[in-house]
Write a structure and sequence with these properties.
Layout lengths: L6 H16 L4 H8 L3 E10 L5 E10 L7 E8 L4 H17 L5 E8 L7 H15 L8 E5 L5 H15 L20 H20 L7 E5 L3 H12 L3 E7 L2 E4 L6 H11 L10 E2 L9 E6 L8 H6 L2 E5 L8 H9 L5 E3 L1 H4 L2 H15 L5 H26 L3 H20 L4
Parallel strand pairs: 3-4, 3-5, 6-7, 6-10, 10-11, 11-12
Antiparallel strand pairs: 1-2, 2-4, 7-8, 8-9
Helix pairs in contact: 1-3, 1-14, 3-14, 4-5, 6-7, 6-12, 6-13, 12-13, 13-14
The structure holds glutamic acid.
Length: 419
Amino acid sequence: MTVFSGPVFDMAVKQFGVIADHLDIPEDERGRLLMPKRAVTVSCPIHRDDGSIAVFEGYRVQHHLTLGPTKGGTRFAASVDLGEVAALAIWMSWKCALVGLPYGGAKGGICVDPSSISRLELEALSRRYMQEMIPFVGPHTDVMAPDMGTNEQVMAWFMDTYSMYQGRTVTEIVTGKPVASGGTLGRREATGRGVAHLARKVLDELGIAAEGATAVIQGFGNVGSYAASELHRFGVKIIAVSDHSGALTCRSGLDIPTLMRHAQQHGSIAGFSSELCCDPDSILTMPCDILVPAAMEQVIDATTAERLQCRILAEGANGPTTPAADLVLADREQEIFLIPDILCNSGGVVVSYFEWVQDLQQLFWTEEEVTRREYEILDRAFAQMVSRARQDQVFNRTAAMAIGVERVRAGKNTRGLFP
Ligand code: GLU
């Protein structure tokens, strides 16, 4: 019996089963590796602007504390539930271990559609959530960050709330803060930049010139928009993008800098152009060199996987591909090079780690330094994944996850069981 349930949690369990079988992990070790260490549920009451009181349910799941504090984003979305948050926390663990960060995985969230509340209500909810979490988090226990539906401003409110309770400024309690409040240069762009950097690396390996190559981006939030803008800077034509409001396509390439300005001003791509509108469901299967799912989990099922027409699948989102789709992708690995989520979008948490380190030391780096070090870590993890895939004759997701799981396992086994 477990309190965690739902399709996303089931997916994390299934994926782990594949890796545990591959690594031949004994049955009695599996629960210790997979099941979250802590899960907290809180009710967050706030005053609405009309004077009424509303209560929102919030969660935080800390997957393991074996290698250091836990680390991970906080999601504000109507779809958030405990099972989803637990799955995302588990994926954070494999991700942090793969790129060699001294963290376990965590994730949090509030079940709320942020567009349905005012800015004042959003501030009240963010502060109340952090206040409820104070007994369970800390710069050496669990460090939050942004995720879907949250941003730098929410992180600043989290940091301020925690700091007011401590009676001093504790910038290292969250990452992804505004630079003006102890954030690092290069964090906002880090995830999208990492996605684009790895996609270009694979283009090079496949002998495809970036100049004139094509890309399709699903999701135009922090990850998708910066991935698009960086790929655009490399000369890649972004032939389609979508977000929750719709989709746009243009064979000769969308004007990404203008689209980014529009999305920043209006909160979505809606209203950018009526001629370029297309069916959002059609974009994943468009012929292109690079496909970047950068929105939700489970958008690529087995049927969609059969129909993909990309050369590179660069997973900007967490968990966009179901285990059934993975079986298809493993068969199609000669046609489609997969950059799995835990590597592809890890630039975000890598630069969050840099932000935490800079806050702890009160010594700040230039943006060039941040980005150079980010790429160094991504390049190393990429090389390790590729050589592991070759050595074990498995596809990239299995190789990447095997490295992550193995590192967490080694940490647990060398520490042993207490008492
Ligand atoms: N939410 C992001 C992720 O899923 C970033 C986490 C972090 O920076 O700690 O990787």
